[in-house]
# Entry
Amino acid sequence: MKMHNKLRLLGIMLIFLLPMWLVVPVANAQPPANDDFDNATPITGALYSFALIPTSGGLTPQEELGKNLFFDTNLSEPTGQSCAVCHGPEVGYTGPDEALNAGGAVYEGAVPGRFGNRKPPAAAYAGDSPIFHLTKKSGWVGGMFWDGRATGERLGDPLAEQALGPFLNPLEQNLPSPAEVVDKVCGSSYKALFEEVCGQCDGIDVNQAYDCIGFAIAAYERSSEVTQFTSKYDYSLKEMATLTQEERKGFSLFKGKGKCAKCHVINGPKPLFTDFTYDNIGMPKNPLNPFYNEPEWNPLGSAWVDYGLGEFLQSAGYDVNVYEKELGKFKVPTLRNVDLRPYEGFVKAFGHNGYFKSLEEIVHFYNTRDVEDWPDPEVPMNINTAELGNLGLTADEEAAIVAFMKTLSDGYIPDFESSGQMVIQLHPKKRKPLPEPKPFPCCM
# Structure
């Protein structure tokens, strides 16, 4: 009788399991065909690692609202400028215009002829930046923007405060007030979603609604759609990818002789490759920066000097003994997606002013700044000489570090055949095709 009950139970289990794919951990497992394979989310188990195919977009209402806001070209004056114009997904949510990157590397705002003064920082992997504060060991830490001015003190979230900055910046989206931003959102096609997250448009508190917009954009930027952790490096940590010999050599140099990890730290299972601190690396001026030719906004013209963190602290009312030693410092960026580009040869810009045009060039600068003939630094004081400038790396070692940094680009597809991993899908069903992306420009 007991055996009979066991057989009945086994039959019932098989009935429920038939719609699923059987999971067999074989050495030469092949991933099934699926249109969403690129968006597979890895799950690591005790014995085997699998990638479950998502069954939906996976965004919360707040994240979905943030996505709509991020790509909305109507949120500028004149219209046409969205966040994505300066923070394109195809390049890791930084500047997506190759022609601009190859030159001044700063981006034009909604008003033709008005340019910002710095290269767009990456909007991805920024969500863990803490509220701006001073530490004994590392100096100033946290905040957002290259100079830390989105401190996070008001909202408790630097990323949300940063998200609100471009809307009212006359060199970016150029809207006159928070009320105008809220009015535009309340007249948008995603009004219902906005009301679900932020409250009814009729009689809404403008300031609260505006802050809600900032929190929504920050939520989207923190979501797995933007901050993915899907690089070759990430999969190597899960034993779903293997770094090449050169990449492993570069990783060792990155942590050791190259001193890269001193600031682009590698902590925990999902390292962000930044410590959110500030540094003056001795960056030369970018003479192609169009901001030098905007007398309305830059009366100093080519004599203008970008003092970064120090200038912000001075404007915030700090004493000279506080801000003077921070002049010329800029926030340490994440290295995730540092090489992500839509095609081989696409020009990206590096550094707060985009002076460098390739990873090879900026790595060579870090290695040889103090021993080769480089242009003078824009700000000659407070330069970091302890961690860069004369590293003694060979050309092969520089190349290895670059090779490792290229493993930090999201969108890597693991080699399941060689790794012995499988992709499984529970209750597979016909998926609707994804809509074609809209040709949005973007903001910073």
Observations:
- The radius of gyration is 24 Å.
- The longest strand covers residues 41-44.
- Residues 1-56, 422-444 have pLDDT under 50 and may be disordered.
- The chain is about 30% helix and 5% strand.
